[in-house]
Amino acid sequence: MNNYVETVLTDLKSKNADQPEFLQAAEEVLSTLGPVIEAHPEYRENAVLERLVEPERIIMFRVPWMDDTGVIRINRGYRVQFNSAIGPYKGGLRFDPTVNLSVLKFLGFEQIFKNSLTTLPLGGGKGGSDFNPKQSPHTPGKRCSDREVMRFCQSFMTELYRHVGPNTDVPAGDMNVGGREIGYLFGQYRKITNEWNGVLTGKALSFGGSLIRPEATGYGCVYFAENMLKTKKDNFEGKACVISGSGNVASYAAKKLIKLGAKVITLSDRSGALYVENGLTIADLKKIINLKEVRRGELSEIAPEIDGAKFFAGAKVWQIAKTIDCAFPCARQNELDGEDAAYLLKHGCALVAEGANMPSTPEAVAAFLKAGILYAPGKAANAGGVATSGLEMSQNAERLYWAAKTVDDKLREIMASIHDNAFEAAAKYGHKGNYVMGANIAGFAKVADAMVAQGI
């Protein structure tokens, strides 16, 4: 490892010993930057790495709200505004009990490079709360009602609004923050500020949203993987694909794969893994999307309605099928470990494209790289969501709606560009085919150059 990089990492670990997710993300990126650091001494002279690993601003606040029984509840809210060298902060909001500062710093740090790779002028940020919309605070086994979610979102935005704006920070959705939550957040922002602008992306079509936005991360992940296969003169026709998750990313990745001729054999959620040996159909996916977006239920409820489906309660998807050509981790961080990676490789997996943020542990990543398979890290493969959010911002600024084909065509072009930039950067610095190196270097160089140009 480069001495400069090692010094920065050592100092970072001493300052953030209680933040394992953030340290994992920082080490994963910085440990690959040696070649570009050696080629550009001005980065060290301007302390780019020391500045890069410290967020420009962290906002933390309380979120008081009233549940349906009249009891006042208190949650924590956060916004990590990590880096705005190339554009306004951009990154999602996550509502989940696992949310803490370490998780949001890791996500915000990753977002810097992901947004840089899109070629759009977007900085990196992330936010959210430890609020859990999937668990009522007063009725075990029940979800929060729509009214409870609305009251929480209104309280959350009552503090957040002063820190965001279309030219400052533009949040989007993330885990457990979908169209319902974005609508409540936007309504409160509009009421407080007396302004209509593109401060949030992922909005409904009726008030400034973009076509293809719900599908974008999943579609983009598949488009990136499709470009990787093209380097081997291959395609998805007939390939058995294992996908984790069942939200927007997983469901729409599955839909696009099926349309490209692949066989999607798994999806999952917190209740367990759904396995269909002969592959899911588009009709099956419609049921699953309705389950998740409308009924807000679990896969265990719908398994009996899908022909040939088997449900494995509490299981992960990685070690079920006997033949696996491609894997798409689309659920959450560190969901695919070294043991899972060994199973995938043993059973024929030749491509892994991450639809989630940092879903593979360091041991799993090392196994994929050692095996020499096609492996795409999340900061490159799942950048389609934020890319289309950027396109939504453009539409809002112009007061226009683009046709679905226009947005989809632009998404395809952006994902092809991200692939090519990562591929070429890896080759330039002597690591051809290593998309981890390529994505990190390509994303970093653009931000570093902007930081140097703008002074300290």
Report on this model:
The protein is an alpha/beta fold and 456 residues long. The protein has three domains: 77 residues, Glutamate Dehydrogenase, Chain A, domain 3, CATH 1.10.285.10; 140 residues, Leucine Dehydrogenase, chain A, domain 1 (Rossmann fold), CATH 3.40.50.10860; 159 residues, NAD(P)-binding Rossmann-like Domain (Rossmann fold, 3-Layer(aba) Sandwich), CATH 3.40.50.720. Helices cover 48% and strands 16% of the residues. The protein contains 18 helices and twelve strands. Strands 9-8-7-6-10-11-12 form a seven-stranded mixed β-sheet, with helices on both faces. A five-stranded mixed β-sheet has the order 1-2-4-3-5. Helix 6 crosses helix 18 and helix 16 packs across helix 17. It is globular and about 60 Å long.
> Element order, helices and strands?
HHHHHEEEHEHEHHEHEEHHEEHEHEHHHH
Structural class: alpha/beta
Proportion in β-strands:
15-25%
Which topology of the largest domain does CATH recognise?
Rossmann fold
Mean pLDDT: 97
Assembly state of the chains shown: single chain
**Uncertain segments:** none
By DSSP (H or I, 4+ residues per run), the number of helices equals 18
What gross morphology would you assign? globular
Identify the CATH architecture of the largest domain: 3-Layer(aba) Sandwich
